[in-house]
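Notes from hallway chat w/ T.B., transcribed later so I don't forget. T.B. wanted the structure written out for a chain they're using in a teaching module, and asked if we could keep both sequence and structure tokens in one place. Agreed to drop them here.
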Amino acid sequence: HQGDLLPEFSEQALRMASTLETIPTLADAPEAVARYLGNLGLPLRCVVWDAVAALDWQAAGIEAANRPPAREVELDRTARDLVGVTGCFCAIAETGSLMLLSGPETPASTALLPETHIALVPVARIVQDLEAAFALMRSERGQLPRATNIISGPSRTADIEQNLVLGAHGPYRVHVILV
């Protein structure tokens, strides 16, 4: 049963330097995102996937744009997109990872380009391991998407003198909101 996988997923996600919050319903997500961004002193602005665009972001004081993140600072904008909010195809308990499938409504750039990635993850979509994640993808999709991203916490590297650096090739922060 998927609910039984929640403790293992949570433990592994925390080990991967993700942060976690649990909310009762998807409708509570905008308030949770606003709290998280407010606690970090980040602007209440984000880019969102189609699947979560209809949530009441405005009531939470969040300016949510349903588009992929801008790749460069545009002349008429004050800042680039710092926060991306996505859903998640499934979560993997064994590793604390998120599996995202790229497509027109689920651009990978929303999770990879902003400094902060917030993923809304239904507890019912937690599977035991990578094999179960790919089995789920085959059973529900029948074919591979254009890209599959397995996200295990913030981007990190220790290439230079073995010093760990977060955010080297992607987000500095990964926040998982479990629904």
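Follow-up for T.B.: Residues 50 and 104 are 9 Å apart (CA to CA). Might be a good example for the class.
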